[in-house]
Design goal:
Layout (H helix, E strand, L loop, with lengths): L7 H6 L3 H5 L9 E10 L3 H24 L13 H7 E11 L3 E10 L1 H11 L11 E7 L10 H4 L13 E2 L5 H7 L13 H7 L3 E7 L5 E8 L2 E8 L5 H20 L6 E9 L3 H12 L4 E9 L3 E9 L2 H10 L2 E6 L2 E6 L1 H5 L3
Parallel strand pairs: 4-5, 4-6, 9-13
Antiparallel strand pairs: 1-3, 2-3, 6-7, 7-8, 9-11, 10-11, 12-13
Length: about 350
C-alpha cells in the first residue's frame, strides 16, 4: 500500500517524481524506535537490566497509542515485565554509554505482530493497523506567501519520527505546474478541486495546509478532502517547529484512527458482485482481499467470465471495510444489500 514520505530536501534539490518512486518502503508499524533509557544501580550490568526493563513499558505505551484513538488510551492493558517480554520479538541498542553504576542508550523494540493483535482482540479494544493513503502536507509560514521547501517549518517535516504512524506524509515538489500552485498566497483558502493537480501527482487522500507563526507558537491547520474542509488550531507558550509538526501529525493520526479503529468483537457479512476484465484481475482481487486484516472469510458463491459473487465476513463497520479495501486499491460501491467490488480505477489503469 502507498506510504512514501518525500523529504523536503528532495524539493530543495529539484528531485522529481522519479525520486519519490525510489523511496524506501514504509517502516514496520510494530517497531518502536528512539526509546531513551537511563538507570543507575550497583553495577553497570545491573543498571543495564533496570534500564531495559524501564524501556519496555514505554515502548508498549507508544505502540498501543500508535494503533488506538485517544478515547481508548485509558484502557491500555498494564502488563508485567514477563508479559511484555512475550510481546517482543527482538530489540536493538544504539548510542550506549555507561559508567561503573550508570547505563544510558537508545533502544529500538520490535514487537511480535501476531502477539500484539491477539492481545488487542482479547482485550476487546478497537484498533487499526491499516495505513491511510498518503496525506500531502503543505507547511506555510504565516506572513510569507506560498510554500518554501527550505523554510525551517518545512524542514521540520523531514524528521524520521513522522514516518512511523498510520498516516504517511508527503511533501510537495514545487516543479512545473505545481510550482505556480504552491506559490499562491491563498493556499489556506483553497478547496479539494483547486488542489487537484497536486492530489493526482502525489496520489494522496487528503491535503493538510499547516500555517505556523514565525516563532512556532501557533499553528492553523486545515484538513482538505473531497468531503470538505476542517480547520483546527494549536497554541503554545513555548514551542518549536519540530513539536508543531508532531502536533499536526497527531491530529491526522487521531482523525484516521477514530474512523478506522476496528472492534473485532463486531462481525458482519455482506454479499458483493465482483467485476473484473480478466482472470489475472480476478486473481489480483483475491490476493488483495487476503491482505485486508478486517476480513475473516471470503466465500465465492458463483464465478463467471467477467464477474463473481462473493460473501465477505468482516470485523467492524461497513464504512471501515470500505476504507480498508481502498488501501488495497479495491473499490466497494453501493449500500446495504447492493454492493459491487472492483479494482480501483488507478489500479486498473496500471494493470499490465
Amino acid at each position: 500500500m502507498p506510504g512514501l514520505f518525500v523529504l523536503v530536501l528532495s524539493a530543495a534539490l529539484g528531485l522529481g517524481a522519479a525520486s519519490a518512486a525510489a523511496a524506501p518502503a514504509p517502516p514496520d508499524l510494530f517497531t518502536i524506535s528512539g526509546i531513551k533509557i537511563d538507570a543507575t544501580a550497583e553495577s553497570a550490568t545491573a543498571a543495564r537490566d533496570v534500564a531495559m526493563a524501564e524501556g519496555r513499558p514505554l515502548a508498549w505505551t507508544r505502540l498501543f497509542r500508535r494503533f488506538t484513538a485517544s478515547a481508548n488510551w485509558s484502557r491500555q492493558p498494564q502488563l508485567t515485565d514477563n508479559a511484555l517480554l512475550r510481546l517482543l520479538r527482538s530489540f536493538e541498542v544504539a548510542n550506549e554509554r555507561r559508567s561503573t553504576t550508570r547505563y544510558l542508550a537508545d533502544v529500538t523494540y520490535r514487537f511480535n505482530p501476531a502477539a500484539v493483535r491477539a492481545l488487542f482482540r482479547q482485550s476487546g479494544i478497537a484498533y487499526t493497523e491499516t495505513r491511510s493513503r498518503p496525506a500531502l502536507v503543505i507547511p506555510v509560514t504565516a506572513g510569507k506567501p506560498g510554500f518554501d521547501p527550505v523554510s525551517p517549518w518545512a524542514m521540520a517535516w523531514s524528521a524520521d519520527s513522522l514516518q512511523q504512524g498510520v498516516v504517511p506524509f508527503v511533501l510537495p515538489v514545487p516543479e512545473g505546474e505545481a510550482a505556480a500552485l504552491l506559490a499562491r498566497p491563498d493556499l489556506a483558502q483553497m478547496d479539494w478541486a483547486a488542489f487537484g493537480p497536486l492530489v493526482q501527482r502525489h496520489n494522496v487522500g487528503q491535503v493538510i495546509v499547516a500555517v505556523a507563526s514565525e516563532d512556532a507558537k501557533t499553528v492553523q491547520l486545515i484538513e482538505v478532502t473531497a468531503a470538505g474542509r476542517r480547520p483546527f488550531s494549536f497554541a503554545y507558550a513555548q514551542s518549536s517547529f519540530a513539536a508543531d509538526a508532531e502536533a499536526v501529525a497527531e491530529r491526522a493520526y487521531e482523525t484516521w484512527k477514530t474512523r478506522n479503529a476496528v472492534n473485532f468483537a463486531t462481525r458482519a457479512t455482506l454479499t458483493a458482485d465482483v467485476q473484473f476484465d480478466s482472470l489475472d484481475d480476478w486473481a489480483k482481487i483475491r490476493a488483495q482481499l487476503g491482505a485486508v486484516r478486517a476480513i475473516s472469510d471470503v466465500d465465492v458463491v458463483g464465478l463467471a467470465l467477467n464477474e463473481a459473487e462473493i460473501n465477505l465476513t468482516y470485523f467492524g463497520r461497513a464504512e471501515q471495510l470500505r476504507d480498508a479495501l481502498a488501501q488495497e486499491d479495491l473499490e466497494l460501491i453501493g449500500a446495504t444489500g447492493q454492493y459491487t467490488l472492483q479494482l480501483s480505477r488507478k489500479s486498473a489503469a496500471n494493470a499490465p
